[in-house]
## 1
Amino acid sequence: MPSLLHTLSIALLSVLLCGSAVALDAGEIVALKDMQAEWGTQLGWRGEPSCNWTDVTCDSDGHVQELSLAAKQLSGSIPASIGKLRSLVSLDLSDNLLSGSIPASIGNLRSLFYLYLNTNQLSGTIPSSIGNLKSADQVRLDTNQLSGAIPTSIGSLQSVRNLVLSFNQLSGSLPDSIGNLQAVENLFLYNNQLSGSIPVSIANLRNAVSLSLSSNQLSGSIPDSIDKLQSLVSLDFAENQLNGSIPASIGNLQSLIQLYLYSNQLSGSIPDSIGNLQAVEDLYLYKNQLSGSIPNSISKLQKLVALKLHDNQLSGSIPASIGNISSLQQLYLFSNHLSGSIPDSIGKLHALRLLYLSSNQLCGSIPDSIGNLSELKFLLLDTNQLSGSIPNSICNLQSLHQLFLQNNTLTGVVPSWVCATNASYDLRDNHFSCPLPTCCSSTGNGLCAPCFA
């Protein structure tokens, strides 16, 4: 039987062997020491670099595999020696106060899977060496002060699924190489200063689920080939300078839930194919130069929650079939050239909370069926050519917060229930009969004047 001394000797030898197996290499020691010197006591690191340091994880060979330093209030720059951590798989420096540029040596981290440098104060350009991170699955550089162009080498990130560069000051055009990101699922480039046209190569992103280029200075037209992105759930090109028409091919995006094209310079009519977006819940086309009528096909959008077409040049009548969209909660059609009457079918929209039809050329009476909208909070019909009396059914709208009917040609008496409502209201500049209810002449929550004998 082995002696106790022999057993202890074997155990000690094992510890020594393991200790030698997990020793950091010289480059890793330099990198960790440089971080310790640059970022100070916030790290909580003491003594010589070690795999036992807080937020440092090593692999079985003793090489640094993960650095998890998010939200440590770190300040200063990222040391260039970080590129010596060649076994690094995950680097998380997000939510700190880091400044200076992203060192080109970051491209030496060829095993990197997760790169999180977001929410800092990093400046300068994105180094072209970023393209060396061919294993990267997640790259977040958003919410910094990065400037300059997106490097062409970005297209070499052929494994990346989530690429987030939003909330920076990036400029120049989108590189054609962006179309090489064939694994990308979420591409967020919004809130930058990108210009030029949307490259046709974007149609190669066949796995893209969310694509946001909003709040830039992009111009030109939406590529017809956009319909190649059959996996898209969210498409956001809002707040740019895009022109031309909405391509009919957009109706082929059968998985689309959110379509945001607002605040551009899009013109022409809304394509009839928009009715093919059977999954869409948010359809925001407002603040463009769209003309023509609202297509009847819009009534096919049975999952639609918010329809915002306001601030365009749409004409014709509100289609009666709009009452078939039973899921609709927000209907914004104000500031267009819509004419004709408000369809009685609007009273079928039992989920509706916001109805904004102001600043059009709508005529005829307010349909009595509007009183069926029990969830309605905002009813804005002002600045039209509506006539007839205020329907008493409106008093059924117990959730109403605002009732704006001013600047029409409404007649009859102002109903007494107006004084009992908790809603703020404006009934001015109509043709109501005198006398007005006493609440209309007070400084309460509503206005009614003038009236006519």
## 2
Amino acid sequence: RQWYQRRVRFMINNQFVVGPVLVLPYMGFLHWKFNDLSSASPDSLFLISRIFPKINTLLIGCGDVMQMVPPVFKAAAKEHDIGLQAESTQQAIQTYGVLLDDNRSFCRTLDTICR
């Protein structure tokens, strides 16, 4: 019960989704086992690095406010040639729309517990 109180539901493709998710253009979404940005590790990128077509930008929705990406997570993303952009969740949703219009290869994460 407490877990649900700390999370917000997202409406994606007419489905309510709870918790961290990867939103992929034209492919829907995948649940992502991710606790919060401060504990992000190279292992957190395993799923993203296996997606085809290759993801070149990862937008991270951090809840109400943007947070800094941990250096170890940044370095791991660079090894996979994945750019990172951390924003508030609301801003990440807006940026997602802009990138989608530009037909870029990216995905977005949504999570409200990254605070």
